[in-house]
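Posting this for the archive.
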Amino acid sequence: MGNNSADDFFPKAARSHVHSSSESRRRPARARMPSSAGYLLGAFVAAIGLFFALWWMLVSGGDEAPWIPAGLAASVVLLVALSAREVVMRRAWTRYLLDQGGESSARTSGEHHRPSGKSNSSSLLSAAWRTIQKQSEEADSAASPESHFEVFHLCQDYLSTTDEALRSNSLAAEKRIAIRAGQERVRALQKHHLLTWARDSSRSLTYEAQQRARTSDKIESANRALHCLESALKFYPGEVELNESSAAIRDFIASVKVAHWVELAERSAFKGHYRRAIERYKDALFYLSRETVKDEVRIPGAERIGREIELLQSRLQARKNGKTETTKDEGKD
């Protein structure tokens, strides 16, 4: 195993290794742990700074509405930062993991004059596993779903790195067994944290949707919750809890749409606009039959809407007949 180097596990970390104990002591302080909240705070501060800078420039130039272009520019910066957050944080976590492995390897090289590739690779994997364990414990004790999502990505990076190592032909049988055992532990944590993120995020967004006043806001928040669950289902499609939660949110979205059109139909009927009310009741029936609504909800709802339509049609017909009789009486006079 003398020819097995740390490059098999963390290629980028090999370039940061030191070759003597004196160089090891000159290494910079331990890298700070990436933070999604810190990234968002930095993006927000940058957007605010850009807004005030542009606003001041436009005010100095005599612009009558300087806050409009300044606000648009700051919004664009903030949207770009939010859309790139996942990619940036994943790269930051990868660099942090590699730095952790490099520090562990440097300490090992300070204790041994000629360390073998096997000891380096073992220390790198041990450092990576310790980092995942630490982040996992912090995520379980924290109340933020994002912390679970970060651990999930950390596990993904670990698994992809070890998969590359297993594809090499320079590993001994016992080393392969140890790596596969580590992968099983990481896969278990990966599943736990992804499911926890999906569950907590979807619950929070569903509660937010229920508190919204506007129908469009309710549907938007519910769709975001559904997106979280569908993202987890791509990895674990057989999870019963995820499928049940997805079905419940779809029912909620359908009920919101149907309730919206029923409310509009009731308003129109109250004002005497029977034709408009009938059309809106038909829109409610459309969404009730189109969405994946349970039969015990869809059938009674469709029957109730059907009765309302029949009642409105009879009222509309009675109105027509009344107008016709009034016209005939006027003609006789």
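Confidence is low (pLDDT under 50) at residues 1-30, 101-120. DSSP finds twelve helices and no strands in the chain.
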